[in-house]
Each structure stands twice: as C-alpha cells, then as structure tokens.
Amino acid sequence: MQKVAKKNAFYAQSGGVTAVINATACGVIETARQHRDKIGKVYAGHNGIIGALTEELIDTSKESTKTIAALRHTPSGAFGSCRYKLKSLEENRAEYERLIEVFKAHNIGYFFYNGGGDSADTCLKVSQLSQTMGYPISAIHVPKTVDNDLPFTDNCPGFGSVAKYVAVSTKEAAMDVASMCETSTKVFILEVMGRHAGWIAAASALAQEQVGDAPHIILFPEIAFDKQKFLKRVKQTVNKYGYCVVVASEGAQYKDGTFIADAGSKDAFGHTQLGGVAPTLATMVKQELGYKYHWAVADYLQRAGRHIASATDVEQAYAVGQKAVEYALQGKNAVMPAIVRKPGKRYRWTIEEAPLDKIANVEKMMPRNYISRDGFHITDAGREYLQPLIQGEDYPPYKNGVPQYAKLKKVMVDKKLKKSFKV
Amino acid sequence: MQKVAKKNAFYAQSGGVTAVINATACGVIETARQHRDKIGKVYAGHNGIIGALTEELIDTSKESTKTIAALRHTPSGAFGSCRYKLKSLEENRAEYERLIEVFKAHNIGYFFYNGGGDSADTCLKVSQLSQTMGYPISAIHVPKTVDNDLPFTDNCPGFGSVAKYVAVSTKEAAMDVASMCETSTKVFILEVMGRHAGWIAAASALAQEQVGDAPHIILFPEIAFDKQKFLKRVKQTVNKYGYCVVVASEGAQYKDGTFIADAGSKDAFGHTQLGGVAPTLATMVKQELGYKYHWAVADYLQRAGRHIASATDVEQAYAVGQKAVEYALQGKNAVMPAIVRKPGKRYRWTIEEAPLDKIANVEKMMPRNYISRDGFHITDAGREYLQPLIQGEDYPPYKNGVPQYAKLKKVMVDKKLKKSFKV
C-alpha cells in the first residue's frame, strides 16, 4: 500500500496588522508542530497572499521553538502582510489558479488565511476553486481585524488590544489635562482608528470609572457630526468639569458623508489644516470657543501597541490559530473559528466554527443601542460588551528597556515553478 | 521653656506634568510622615503655586497611607499643576510677599517646589525674600521636567519615562510599517515633544537594536532642517530598507528659526503652541517623493504614559522627593537634590545637593557630540547617556483592564487670611 504523503500547510497574514496577529501565527504553527504525523511543514506567505502568488514562501520549520513561542508576544506581521485584494473569480481567475498551482507544487493541503472580511472571501474562493481544479485544499479563515467588523465572532482578535491601548491612553492623557486645565489646555482631542465603525472610539469609554471622567465626548462614524451640537457639548463640559476630552474616530463624518478630516478647514491664520480629524476639530474649538487645545493622533501606535495588549485578546488570538489547525485536521473546510460569548455574568468564551460563505464580505456594524441616545457616548449595553475584551495584561519580556520581540530567520523555500507571476 | 511649634511643609507641582511627578510627591509626603516630630503637616498647593497665592491648600494628612503610596504609580499632577510663572521681584514683589504671608499664616517652614527651570528661579526668590521679610523659609527645589533641560542633575525625573514611551512606540510602530511596506505605507512620521532640545526625539534611537532598524531619521531642534537633504535621506532609506521611519521633535526648525510647523497660537508664557510637524513633513514626502505615508502625534500620551514608565525614572523621582525632605530637615536652603551619575560601566547614581542660584534659568542643551555628524541620528555617546534612563518596568496595578491610579480626597485647609489674592 502506498503511503499518502502528508500535506504541508500554508499560512498568510492579510491586511492591516495588529498587536496579536502573530499570537495567532504562534497558535497555528505550534499546533501544527504537535501533529507532525499529519501536517508536514508550515509555510508562511512572504508579505501575505502575495508570497503565495509569487511563490515566496517562508519555511517556518527553520525557526526555533523559542522563536515561534516569542511570536505570541510580538506585534505586527512577522511574515509580512499586504493590502492585496484578489479580484473576483470572473475578473481574474488566473490569480486563483496560480494560488492552487503554487499550493500543488509545494504539496500544500491546508490554507490558513489570517485576516478580515476580504480575506474570508478569498479563502472561500480558494476552497471552492481547488475542488473544481481537482486539488482540494482545506481552507480555514482565521479572524483578525482591529476594526472588529466580522460577523459571527463575538469580537475580532486584534480589537481587544487596540481597545485597551485607547482606553488606557485616554485615561492617562485625560488625567494630564485635568491636572492643568485651570491655566492650560481645556480641550484635548484624541483621534483613533475606525473608518466605518466606531468600535475603537467606543472603547475609550472604558477609561471612565465615574460620572465626569473622560472621555466626555466620543465621535462615531455611525452618528452624523453636527458642529453646533458638538461645540455646545464641549462648552457645557468645560463649564462643568473645567476641561473636555474628545475621542474621535478617523471616520467621523457629516450627515452628507463628508469626513470631518476632509472638510478642508483653515486655521486662525488661514493656513489649510493638514489632514486629521483631531487637528480639524481642535481648530474648530479654538475658533468658535477660544479654548486652548491639544490633540493627538495615535495612528499605528494603537494597533502596534503590544506592550499594553489585552491578555484576553492574546489568548483568543492564539486560540483561533490553534483551533484553525484542529479544524483542518478534522477535515473541515471553508470555515472560520469564531469566538462565542457564553451566557452569564462572568465573561466566558469558547471557539466554534462558522461557515465562510456567511462571513465573506459581511460587515458587522456597531449596534445602535451601544451608542447613547445623544450620540456622544456608549450605553451600558455597549460597556457590557466591551469591558471583558480589555481584561488582563500580558507583558512582553524586556531587554535594555525595550520589549524583545521575535526576530525570524525567514528562510525561503526553493521555488519549484518555472513561471513567475506578476502581482 | 516654651516649645517651638513644629513647622508645616508646603509642596507644589509646577508646569507640564509627567508620568512620575506624583512619585516625587509620594517621596516628599512619605518622608515627611516619617518625621512627624519635626514636620507638621504637608500642605499641597491646589493647582501648583496658584494654590499658595490664593490660599487654596490641600491637607495631605487627610489622605490615607494607601492613597499616598498609590501616588508612586499615578501619572499627571495629583494636586493640580499650573503654567504660572511668577514675575520678577521688581515687577511684582506683591506676589512673593503674598506667598510668604500665606506660609506664615499656615506656619509653613518648608517649601518644596517640584518643577523645571522657571520654578527653580521662583524657589530661590522665595528663599531670599523670606529672609528679608524675617520669616525664613527652607526652600528646596525638586527637579521635574520631560524636557531634561535642568543643569547639574544627570537627568530630570519625568524624562526617562517619556523616553521609554517614545522608544517603545517607535519600535512597535516601525514593526507595523516594516511588515506592510511592500504594498502599503512606506514612510511613517512620529512627532514627539521637545521645543528647544531634542532629548525626547533622541530617545527614539533606543528602539534601534541593529543597523537598518528604525528610527532611520531623527529631526532635532538643534539641527537646522534642510528639506532637500531630508528628502534625499528618506528616499535612500526607502530604497535600502523598503520603508523609512522618521521621529521629529515638535521644535524642529529651519535655519532661520522658523518651525517646520507652527500652529499659530501662543501659550501663557508667550511660547508658540506647536503641533503639526508630522503632517507637514508627511505632505512634503508625498508631494516630492510620492510615497504613501502615515503619521502620529503622541502629544500628552507620551508624558502621561505611566503604564510604560521607566522603573529607573520612578525610583529617581521618588528619591529626589525623599532627599528634598531630608535636606530641609538638615537645615539646607535654596538647593536642589540632583541625580549624579557615578563613574563605571554599570549605571549607578546617587543624589547630591546643587545650589539653586546656579540652576535657576539655566537651560541644559543636548551636547552636539550626542548627535551624529549628519544630524539625523544619535552617536554612541548619546546612546550611552540615554540607555540607562529607560531601564526597567514599573507597572501600575490594573482593574477592569485599566490602570488604577490614586484618587485623592483633596480636603482643603481652612483659609486664615482675610484678603483674597487675584492671580
């Protein structure tokens, strides 16, 4: 009887990276290593799916146990990620066929795609086309996105850590403002990520422990920005508490869909304000209310901030990676390990499979009942949902005062295909 | 024989607050409490020196041992700080006389003023005038400033923590950029504090572990900005490493002294309010080189970031507070506890007294030999100086996923003077 060669696995990171996507990679690789009888090597795409298209595969078997373990506490995409959305099957079937060819050439039978909604779609198509092409691949989508917009899953790995970063930063910066507001800054504006959904901005509310604590105003993309209403609330807040802390989603917009950031406002001296919701709002506050302001734009700092990651998030990120491999070994296909919140007062969760065809290209928005009626804050329901996700600290090791993150050797697998592929 | 009533102490926080100024307050109050035979109560100025002028004194004896201990891990100014510079003695002698009156009314014999260069000057004058007025006060200046610009002391409490925040943030954000630069952001710009001196920007260099690591370019206020030279370096870096991380001081300026970005407004001291170097540079890079960019402005997040404080900084902040009280008890006057670096390879330090008349209004600049010849980075000498200051982590306790910082009762002392004072 001929022995069937065991299949290798392919893992790729997709889209914007997070503080914990490597914890998922760690979960995938460590679990695969526990099943050497069934899974050969784990190849990682160099720069995500582009690595598969160009046959640039990183041989993770060349990395030590210690290095792979260190991925758990390492932010960013250790193998490289990319913003590269495969076109539809109709538009560019060649891309999908190329993927299957590369997988076939390297004896890859498992495809783990770690990303958001777009990659769920790609993952599904790879699964489908591989069947059509007679080289069936077990394709498992592994959730990741700071945007927290995937359906089925309670939350998306990566979100809890950016949420914690934003809550902690809001709390600390607000204390700074509060301690000096009598003679200095009265209004502080923190701009956070969130182009379509206000999940990240909402998380800043977790900084608030009692009435009057910051943040005082949260601006969500979901709620049309009303300049006069906003300014009135800023003024009321300064009158009441002496200062006002605003947290604004980058995607905050006017009723007509114009982003606040694109409104093209000018400062007091007629200079055009350079990008950013925060500086635009700050200028507005200065011009209309005359308050001294400061603003911050956290940008990549928030999603890369592994030093202040949520332990819950790290655990879940690892668990979805681990579960993805277990699903593959169970012969599952076109599914995603989803985090499921168990009923009860204490936050408990488990991982369950969700069908990819119901996930691909579906965006989960923030429920309206998580946002307060006046549109400037979250409700108790919103807080109840968010609170558990930032629980626990999971500090990386330090050396010379800075975190020690995994450094990979990134040994490339020899190419086997004659044709190169241009992306 | 009549018993001489023991004197009370007055403590005030001045100017921009830091992640560790409350650790100094903790050092002052805990040490004073150990000497109840000699020091009565410690009163803290509500909102800094303004509290002394308006007779708004917080009775710290009403705070529990636990609350005072928690100040050690609490950022911002727990008693309130202010940007209020006393005028010169000639211009406004009444202000100094008022201070002495208030001190006399509340039997205050010790004045601990926790701030930067301006407050060292105030502290010295209070000491001098109190003698003239026949109510001698033992005035001790306690160093604090993220600007790291006080003379005599090896470094200024507050700086080490902002330095650590910036080094860690630069490292993390750079990893994010590196992992996606093939298809996404190529240039990332982080704007940090530093109006006159590039100490904070310099600290970002500690993120670098090997050649090629970020930051690739540091812009110091000390080095005239040359647009063409900067753009050339950005391009070279992107060509060589695939991406480029720039850390820019808010005070970075052209040869003629024009700030790269100038927000227009001025603060209470007449300093131009800065902010916006990062977006200005980003626009420049986009226009001239066409690279996709991202930028972040850390603003208050960096100096309030107690969650990532340097343990060395916390220890030193506490030690200068402790030593200030010891100096006062030894009858010293018009001095400042300064951190002194001991010779040797391993970083060891001690606290020694420095005379206030040599400190007041003297600004310590970054030595030119700490900046590389090309002006875009630091030298080994710079690294050797900076490295020990960010050593060690000192995490605050957490509850519900966010740090638990001290909450004071702030019980006010009954006013004794009939005249009120307008600041």
Q: Would you mind describing this structure in some detail?
A:
Two copies of one chain form a homodimer. The first copy, chain A, is of the alpha/beta class and 423 residues long. Chain A has two domains: 7-145 and 307-362 and 391-403, Rossmann fold (3-Layer(aba) Sandwich), CATH 3.40.50.450; 159-304, Phosphofructokinase domain (Rossmann fold, 3-Layer(aba) Sandwich), CATH 3.40.50. Chain A has twelve helices and 13 strands. Chain A has helices spanning 21-33, 49-53, 65-70, 93-105, 117-132, 159-180, 199-203, 227-241, 277-289, 300-304, 311-329, 380-386; strands spanning 7-13, 39-45, 57-59, 108-115, 138-143, 187-192, 217-219, 244-249, 293-297, 335-341, 349-355, 398-399, 402-403. Chain A has a five-stranded mixed sheet, sandwiched between helices. The first copy, chain A, has a four-stranded parallel sheet with strand order 7-8-6-9, sandwiched between helices. In chain A, α8 links the parallel β7 (217-219) and β8. In chain A, α1 runs parallel beside α11 (311-329). Mean pLDDT of chain A is 94; it is low at 265-274. Chains A and B meet through α6, α9, β9, α10 and β13 of A and α6, α9, β9, α10 and β13 of B.
- Name the average pLDDT of chain A: 94
Taking all Cα atoms into account, the compactness measure Rg of chain A is 23 Å
Oligomer: homodimer
Residue runs with pLDDT of under 50 for 5 or more positions of chain A? 265-274
Give the N-terminus to C-terminus distance of chain A in angstroms.
42 Å
Instruction: Count the beta strands of chain A.
Output: 13
CATH architecture of the largest domain in chain A, by name, is 3-Layer(aba) Sandwich
CATH structural class of the largest domain in chain A: Alpha Beta
Helix content of chain A: 25-40%
- Beta content of chain A: 15-25%
Largest sheet geometry of chain A: 5 strands, mixed
**Total count of domains of chain A:** 2
| Helix-strand topology string of chain A | EHEHEHHEHEHEHEHEHEHHEEHEE
Q: What general form of chain A does the structure show?
A: elongated
What is the largest interface, and how many residues per chain? A-B, 77 and 79 residues
Spatial strand order of the main sheet of chain A? 3-2-1-4-5
CATH topology of the largest domain in chain A: Rossmann fold
Our count of helices of chain A gives 12
